[in-house]
Amino acid sequence: MPIRMAASLRRQEEGGTPPLGCAALGVRWASTWFHGSMSGSTVPLPHDVRLRLADERNVWLCTLRGDGSPHVTPVWFVYLDCVWWIGCDGRSVKVRNVRADPRVSLALEDGVAPVVAEGAARVHHADFPAPIVTAFAGKYAGWDIRGDDRVLLEVPVRRWLLAGTAQ
Prior knowledge:
Blueprint: H1 3-13, H2 47-55, E1 58-64, E2 70-80, E3 83-89, H3 93-100, E4 103-108, E5 115-120, E6 122-124, H4 130-139, E7 150-162
Antiparallel strand pairs: 1-2, 1-4, 2-3, 3-7, 4-5, 5-7, 6-7
Helix pairs in contact: 1-2
């Protein structure tokens, strides 16, 4: 787990301040499990979910084609400061779809304890935030997300659907 993510989790567990960026999204941290969808909620994610977000290598990204049909692909990601970050080829179908309709869903691979998020993606073409570049390199053995025709998708979570909570 990259150092920044581990430090953020430790601060939360010790009752300290949440990672930067979360307060702006209205997130308050506590050690409680949330039972229900988290639409507009200030209830934090359970510790085991936060650990999965730090450790798991792939998330399934669902975008919408022009005809409204889903396009689902596994992607590498980092989750920092209450936001999903995904590095992509700027010419990919998923990026073309996001440019036309930013609504996306993300799902971690484990079907036993599902973690699904919904949000609206923003496409970054250059000047990727340094902490995000560092987090990708730490999680994926030095991988540099910057490069020719690379973009970065930023997905702040609008709604969480967790195990036993989907409606």
